[in-house]
Model the fold of this input.
Amino acid sequence: MFSSVQSFKSIFLKKLESTYGKSFEETTKQDQYQVLGQMVREYISENWILTNEKYRFTKAKTVYYLSIEFLLGRLLGNNLLNLGITDVVKKGLKELNINLDEIEEAESDAGLGNGGLGRLAACFLDSLASLELPGHGCGIRYKHGLFEQKFVDGFQVELPEQWLRQGNVWEVRKPDLAVEIPFWGRVQTYHDGERLCFQHLEAETIMAVPYDMPIVGYRNKTVNALRLWSAEPSPFPYHKDVMQYKKETEAVSEILYPDDTHDEGKILRLKQQYFLVAASVRSIIRSYRKKNNNIRDLHEKVSIHINDTHPVLAIPELMRILLDEERLGWEEAWEITTKTISYTNHTTMSEALEKWPIRIFKPLLPRIYMIVEEINERFCRELWKKYEGDWKRIEEMAIIAHDQVKMAHLAIVGSHSVNGVAYLHTEILKHREMNLFYQYEPEKFNNKTNGITHRRWLIKANPELTKLIKEGIGDKWIRQPEQLTELMRLKDDEQFLIRLKDIKQKNKEKLALRILQQTGMKVDLSSIFDVQVKRLHAYKRQLLNVLHILYLYNRMKEDRNFKPYPRTFIFGAKASPGYYYAKKIIKLINTVADLVNNDKEVCDYIKVVFLENYRVSLAEEIFPAADVSEQISTASKEASGTGNMKFMMNGAVTLGTMDGANVEIFERVGSENIYIFGLRAEEVMNYYQNGGYHSREYYHYDRRIREVVDGLVNGIVSDSYGHFEPIYDSLLMQNDQYFVLKDFSSYAEAQERIGMDFSNVLEWSKKSLINIANSGYFSSDRTIGEYAKDIWKISTPQNVLQ
Done:
């Protein structure tokens, strides 16, 4: 159906009219999107079947990537690109007077994630398929995802994310593969001969129904799958109140990250996590059993990877299956489990490592708790053998302690590999956050620096830049992204640099149009597009950015001769609904934006834009247009970052701390092509450990800081409601936990250097080119290749079916 423009047009028109029972002229963009999507999915199906058959026939070892998030974005354009049929579709639609971009706009972003964790998982699935590796994703089919963000009087308001309102053309419901998941109830023990057996009785069960989505490899015939589980009522529930049961059941796959400030929310989040892993692991074992008789070989044919701590219950769930259903002994089951499971850590902050109260965990998951308790007992006995008498060490390493189950500890103990996601992050894990575990089993720890799929974030998002790169160095880099370094030979080619600048300008024009449509605001296309788009969190320091904007405003008002290089500061971020402090920062950014944008003396030099509802499809317009990439987290706090890589690949220059993958970007581009400021990780950790930082000193001795901080409570951005007192208190009364005031001066100086350097067009374009040229290392193809070789031990199966 995509063999020629004429064939595509004919089939598209016929399907469009027969599907909706109306003439082509009467159909809507949504109608056209739905039919085109159906055609593409049908086109994918043959290779999807063949891929599964190849894996089955070759008995290829397969990885299953378990993640609470998969931030896919829109799939139509990405699938067309990977299938190699974009031009046929675009030309065919053009002849029908249809713009493909407008049809893509009709697709909703899949509401299955929040930030870097989910987007990384999506990039990894893309690379697995593009490298022809056997690997599938397992997640939850959230009905409403996170939320749709709106601003009302500068405040974030959360609305249900209606991404499934028109259905999901890419998914295939498979009710015949549904799995029953038990909660609550009690465990009865009995003896079968000499074997102690366990039976879960009086459980409240939930049906986990799978929906499969194809993950298409780039220009090959590999189609892997993302299996998403939907929570539905069991036909025969053990429950007194059927309506309450229905409501509680459907809540499990209703939204991503329910508020867990109260027990009700904690129970729901823990339910979600067990629901995901129980359904996935049972499905994995069922699939394995179809191809293999011996459960003892499971780790030879299956790798289960847990993306952060949310899916850690895969460890006791796999143990439960091996013990209770496969009737293996504990030692044998434990060996298989640990050889099957691997774990990626995504944080250096101990407070972000999940812990569940026993009072919630034990009654909700009675059999799983028994297994975790036994894992803990056996682990502590092993620790005692090595560290006899060191009660403090054993207490700190225990999986269950102080009436809590520590999920990160369970993940480390129950897996054969523990990796960080950037070199600095991994070193911090080894020598600080997880040092006791590293001392105990150093061979488990390794680094896998994150990557992004250059197919979506460069080829799809920035087609003009892609075309220019092909003209400059050919197209080998598309399959071997590290070949982008060939661009370095063009860094002194004036004509090439001018064309690079022109492409950036066109992308800025496109984003400016989006800003005008969404906000009604006109921005200066010659200004520096200074961008910070990421999850709103205190450690990511959007606060430092906005306080600096307020400083520029104050300086312009005081000194009429001060004219900074024009800047458009662009923000995009969602704050978790229960994260009170982050929502105050959103209000502050919007308040400063109103102040700056409406001041005629200032707005020609500074504009502040906060785009609502930041998401993947919006990011695809933002990254190609950015001049400056703000990666300004407190050093030692950002595990890696992936936004920094997407900006870099699109020619933005990083303004950042030596944190996460910024360190590795710095090593590749050199100090002249990145703007580094602020404390180093070791300095931050020294302050945390030994004290010595007093934020009030910076407040008293730096007039710039004093003015902007005072402005929060009694100055130009304050009002009678005292909205920003919590921010003021965090900086002074609570001693500025994330060193915003400490790094302020260094940050302001770096911004001044950017203003001076940007005016030299060719030199700035050269910086941009050097960043693009060195971005290939940060392709997720490289990352997945390392996972496949070092951790999962998977490889491309021989294509024996041709």
